[in-house]
Amino acid sequence: MASPWTERATRAASDAHPAFEPPVPERARRDATCAEHRASTPNARASASNAAASPTPAPDALAQHFKTAMRRLTSTVSIVATRDACARYGMAATAVSALSTEPPAILVCINRAATLHAPLMRVRRFSLNLLHERQLELIAPFSGKLDHDARFAHGEWRDAYGVPMLAGAQATLWCAVDGDFSYGSHTIVIGRVDSVSTAGPVAPLLWQDGAPCAARALAPCLHDAQ
Fold this sequence. Notes:
alpha+beta; 2 domains; three-stranded antiparallel beta sheet; disordered N terminus
């Protein structure tokens, strides 16, 4: 803190010499000098030039680039299913991910135009059925124009915990909607996992580059080699 004497001396100097300014601390001068030097370097000038020469893509072009990039993101194909009164609703989904283990929870992204969306928001319970690679034939009916209940004529379905479950799925997770929020065209659903069932060896049906595919091991698992 400046002493009263220093403050009085500074005011006096300012009154006597209108152009007088209090001395700039040495560290502030060094920082300003360094900033000027960085701005004048070739790298800084090149970065500024590149930024000016690289306009933001048009929204339509950016969306297309995004879709092209996402085709390189491999995901497990699942069927999200629920029941509202006497009707069953289901859809194939790849926008699914684990959220936490304490408590067990998942994220599912659902287009608000999907027939599943409204009933799911009402009943707030669903099953997530991770497809086996042998269940390829279920993708089309659960992605197409079939009526909601007609989709369940494909595959072996039965009710458990109040919602449909798929027999032979890699795994089934029974979930309660524990939160949801909108973003763009979708609702992001937080599913609190209440129960889990798994079956058979790990052989998930995957989706990559707009087409189904299967997983393959690149090298022996470490725990198998030990």
